[in-house]
Design a protein that fits this description.
By secondary structure, the protein is mainly α. It folds into two domains: 39 residues; 372 residues, no CATH class. 80% of the residues lie in helices and 0% in strands. The chain is built from 22 helices and no strands. The protein is globular.
Amino acid sequence: MNLAIIILFGSFLVLLFFGIPISFTLSISSIFTMIYLKIPLMVIGQKMSDVLDNFSLMAIPFFILAGQIMSDSGIARRLVDFSNLLVGRMRGGLAFVNIVASMFFGGMSGSSVADTASIGSILIPAMVKKGYDRDYSIAVTVTSSTQGLIIPPSHNAIIYAYAAGGLSIARIFLAGAIPGVMIGLFLMIPSYIIAVKRGYPVGKEIKLKHVLKTTEEAFLGLFTIVIIIGGILSGIFTATEASAIAVVYAFFVAFFVYREIPLSKFWEILWDSGKTIIAVMFLIASASTFAWLMAYLRIPNAIAQAVLGISSNKYIILLIINIVLLGLGMIMDMAPLILITTPIFLPIVTNLGVSPIHFGIIMLMNLGVGLCTPPVGNTLFVGCIVGKMKIEQVVRALWPFYIVMVLVVLLVTYVPFFAMWLPGILFK
């Protein structure tokens, strides 16, 4: 068994070092280990297909497609304009607009990468044009986009609900609402301090006529959140049904109301979404097979005993888990980490009295920070591409934002109220 564990993790690390995509890395290392253990290779096919035969996971492709439609159709621009009405007049107001727009758009797309690409392509050039430093503009965009991973709907929350054994998606969606908003509010602190220190401009006063027009145009986009969350919480439809309805609604608004793009553009949107969906679902299947092998080799039990051997104090154990998740988030993608680490850490924290819903938010927030950090921060990469700047230059500007994001993670970890209040109120 010890040699099998070495083969599993050794081959994984070697393949990762040589730049093999994470999905193939997980699959190939699983195959090597199965060959050594003399497990029929058809098992890997069965495990990969079994995990995808899940009704709840069907929500992920629909949310991805809805996010792609909203990203390409001008909804993001309207949300930026609406956010400007709310916070644009403050010192360094475009940074606040960036954060608030990410809060709204993330609440519809559930993707930090889509958020960064859409909001960033609009606001980074606008901020630079107004005199904001480019690295600061990218840093604000990248970190604020992680709100989309926490604020509902989040397809990563759906993955966690599955990995945790079928938790209520509605509950975990609600649990992420306050922590997601907290990320945005806390990011405003360094944004404002830096804006004052560097003398960034104050936004112009907006006329009432423009306020009414902007609000009217943004309303249909914002109503997407009401449809998704309201429908799920009221019991009218499930999360999967809500995701399908979100696609239909986004399609109608994009092509028959806003009409900024031709209907023929939909085929390109389907193609782009399809590529993303295939990559995500293959990643989920590969990671689930890897996680099954870990359970077969009793690795979660060994890690649990090691962690509990360090300390029996609940708060110290939670701190250790936070540190581990932050570190892993820096070197691996979010979805496979959720599937691999949930079976390891969830039994530990539940034995300590931590709710699985609460822990899910802790995990998503930790791994969200990882998406903003090198060497494998996808959101950071996209932000640098959109902002046309090298990663090493942007990272220096990210430190103040890293600090407040970690602070929010610790607050949510040690004060369960932030994650558990809304689910407790609405699901008594």
